[in-house]
Write a structure and sequence with these properties.
alpha/beta, 6-stranded parallel β-sheet, 11 helices, globular
Length: 380
């Protein structure tokens, strides 16, 4: 019998986290039938090299997509990808009205892909099991890094008693991430709680190459590195950064796509939650999201207008990323780190997270999404 083929056509924004989503879904299709041929299509500006850490992905195709141009030549972008597959599953966002209106180029890509690909057995949406190929949800994706990168990361971090990775900010405008003063407060609290801790700063400074980078400045990173015992894996290749992250005991960061990689390496994630999106990727590794007080520090606006910025000495800041917010939440930040550096289990982390969401956001279940519906058992 010929090997069944599944194409995970997962083209969306180029952030690291969306590549992780695609690989998570591809992993579920592989585990449902390990004999399958699994292929993935990604936005060319996505870190497609992550697929090289998944030995069950047989092929990766890159397409150059302008999400904001509804007239771009999507047929040319697709021309190099084989047309015939048994199954083709796409990103559900390509069918959602709000996404198609916001990203007309995305709509054009998926409309063109619908005529380009010929699926012998059918089409579906990634991760949805009612229509499409068999799929195993709730599986733990683990990236398999080269041993050379794991060794390099271990050598970089050394023998500190506690090793904490820090991603100071993602690719959104600078005002959507903590100020230097806020980071000094947060890292100072962690350093006091965990004597001898070493911090490992991660990120890619934005060079205008079209791939996502942090809006945090090099001078800001230098100031933090001077203030705390630390090493840095900044502006090195992504897989090398992941080797450093894998050597750490904990990641501390605001919500960002890069931070999704922590769970794929077995590293707990302490999230300074806020801004537009709540956390929605849970991958079998303990985590703690420090949730803002919605009344004082509004957040999770998603596709609605962002809350007004607040003025503070370091410049305007999103309310949930303000110094007042982190001063208020510092005890919880330190307590969350203590949980994650202890023996807190993943089931305990899940249960606690959704209980706290229910208390702080009573209507959360009406707007919340999680990959593979991890949240559904917690909706009463």
């Amino acid at each position: 019998m010929a090997t069944e083929s599944v194409l995970v056509n997962f083209v969306y924004a180029h952030n690291v986290g969306h590549a992780i989503e695609a690989l998570h879904y591809a992993h579920g299709y592989h585990l449902a039938d390990p004999d399958r041929r699994i292929a993935v299509v990604l936005n060319k500006k996505t870190p497609v090299e992550l697929a090289s850490c998944c030995d069950w992905v047989d092929e990766v195709f890159e397409v150059e997509v302008d999400l904001f141009d509804g007239e771009f030549d999507a047929a040319a972008a697709l021309a190099g990808i084989p047309r015939d597959w048994d199954w083709v599953v796409g990103d559900l966002r390509g069918t959602q009205d709000v996404q198609r209106e916001l990203f007309p180029g995305l709509a054009r890509y998926y409309d063109t892909a619908a005529t380009h690909f010929r699926a012998a057995k059918g089409t579906g949406h990634a991760g949805l099991v009612k229509i499409g190929p068999s799929y195993r949800p709730h599986q733990e994706l683990r990236l398999r890094l080269p041993q050379t990168e794991l060794d390099r990361g271990a050598a970089l971090l050394g023998a500190a008693p506690v090793k904490i990775a820090v991603l100071p900010g993602g690719s959104a405008p600078r005002e959507y991430y903590p100020s230097i003063a806020s980071w000094e407060l947060i890292l100072g609290g962690l350093a006091a709680k965990f004597p001898g801790a070493r911090f490992c700063f991660l990120g890619k400074l934005d060079t205008g190459d079209g791939r996502t980078g942090t809006s945090f400045g090099a001078g800001e990173l230098d100031r933090l590195r001077t203030a705390f015992p630390s090493v840095a894996a900044v502006d090195v290749p992504l897989v090398e950064q992941l080797g450093a992250l894998a050597a750490c005991d904990l990641l501390v960061s605001p919500h960002s796509g890069f931070s999704f990689t922590a769970g794929t390496l077995g590293v707990p994630w302490l999230t300074l939650s806020g801004n537009r999106w709540p956390e929605y990727y849970f991958n079998g590794v303990p985590f703690y999201s420090v949730l803002p007080d919605q009344d004082r520090f509004p957040c999770y606006s998603m596709f609605a207008a962002d809350p007004d910025l607040v003025e503070e000495p370091g410049g305007p800041r999103a309310p949930s990323m303000s110094q007042a917010r982190f001063a208020a939440d510092l005890p919880e930040i330190v307590a969350g780190a203590e949980l994650l550096l202890g023996d807190w289990s993943y089931p305990d982390a899940l249960s606690d997270h959704f209980q706290r969401l229910s208390r702080r956001f009573p209507d959360w279940s009406t707007w919340f999404f999680a990959i593979d519906g991890v949240h559904l058992p917690f909706i009463s």
